[in-house]
Specification:
5% of the residues lie in helices and 47% in strands. By secondary structure, it is mainly beta. Strand 24 and strand 25 form a beta hairpin. The chain has a four-stranded antiparallel β-sheet. Strands 2-3-4-5 form a four-stranded antiparallel β-sheet, with no helix packed on it. The chain has one helix and 26 strands.
């Protein structure tokens, strides 16, 4: 059985490699992208920028590259998690240095590029709104990777407020929601992938070793994840976590893809059709977040959009 399993995994790796497509992007080399989203209707891919505080977009084949919003337009900050629902782009941003910290959520019309709504967080604590998930009704759930808080939008007050907080979900990064809108999947730095029942606000599974996750998405009764924060780079890559029939427990973990180079740092990803899309290397290791400077400009390369069939 071990030999057969090994051969199966080898065949899967070969198959995945053959199905991986790459598109070279023509945006600025110092963009340092973090968030990515796909508009399935217009077939556009959106990237935001850690360094330039803006959002860009292009067609899925890399053509028609343009600014979606300019640097600091609508008070946008260094870009983090994004997603598209209908004709609305939800985009998070943060001030990167701890001094004078502030976070923002923008809702932008993908057709007109106009601002629909803006929500900011600014207090005495260091806030780092990292990723978000939006259900079919437009309810937003946001991770704060510097605390144990999950935020949502209070539309009555026009502000962000804490939806759930627990020491069991410290430093969450990736977040996704089940297709029926009942469960949140949270990638905690300290306790692995935790599963939260939204109605009861109860955690359904125990702490686990599925750590170091950045982007996280639910697709066909599995969670797909980009793992990029393990100290051992051989443990990084794209992973699939199979769920039980109720979606309340991870029953199997498989590594789907290796990064092209151990130093590559893909971050979040988007799913469109039967494929995932991500930037192969954000070049974040060449970026000083405190000074907003590129460490070695001569090492910057064009970004490549990877399409991997799931």
């Amino acid at each position: 059985m071990r030999i057969l399993t090994g051969l199966w995994l080898f065949a899967l790796t070969v198959s995945c490699t053959q199905q991986r497509n790459r598109v070279e992007l023509t945006f600025e080399k110092d963009l340092i992208p973090e968030g990515i989203a796909i508009d399935p209707h217009a077939k556009k891919v959106y990237l935001n920028s850690l360094r330039l505080d803006k959002i860009v977009r292009c067609d899925l084949d890399g053509s028609h590259a343009e600014n979606f919003i300019a640097s600091n337009q609508y008070d946008y900050l260094s870009g983090f998690g994004m997603t598209v629902k209908g004709d609305t782009l939800f985009a998070l941003g943060n001030v990167l240095p701890k001094a004078n910290n502030k976070s923002i959520l923008l809702l932008l019309n993908t057709v007109s590029k106009e601002l629909i709504a803006s929500y900011t967080l600014e207090n005495d604590h260091f806030i780092y709104l990292n990723d978000l998930a939006v259900d079919a009704k437009g309810t937003v759930y946001i991770t704060d990777s510097e605390s144990n808080d999950i935020y949502t939008v209070n539309e009555t007050k026009g502000s962000l407020e804490v939806f759930f907080a627990s020491d069991e979900i410290k430093h969450c990064n990736g977040i996704t929601i089940s297709p029926d809108g009942k469960l949140l999947y949270l990638a905690s730095y300290t306790s692995g992938v935790r599963i939260l029942d939204i109605a009861s606000k109860k955690l359904l599974n125990r702490p686990n070793g599925h750590k170091g996750i950045d982007g996280l998405k639910c697709y066909r009764n599995s969670l797909f994840a980009i793992v990029n924060a393990r100290r051992d780079p051989t443990k990084n890559g794209v992973f699939r976590f199979a769920l039980n029939g109720q979606g309340t427990e991870i029953i199997k973990a498989d590594k789907m893809l290796e990064f092209e180079k151990p130093s590559d740092i893909p971050t979040t990803f988007a799913i469109y059709g039967d494929s995932m899309y991500f930037v192969s290397d954000s070049q974040m290791d060449n970026f000083d977040q405190e000074s907003n400077d590129i460490i070695a400009p001569e090492r910057l390369e064009n970004y490549r959009l990877v399409r991997q069939k799931l």
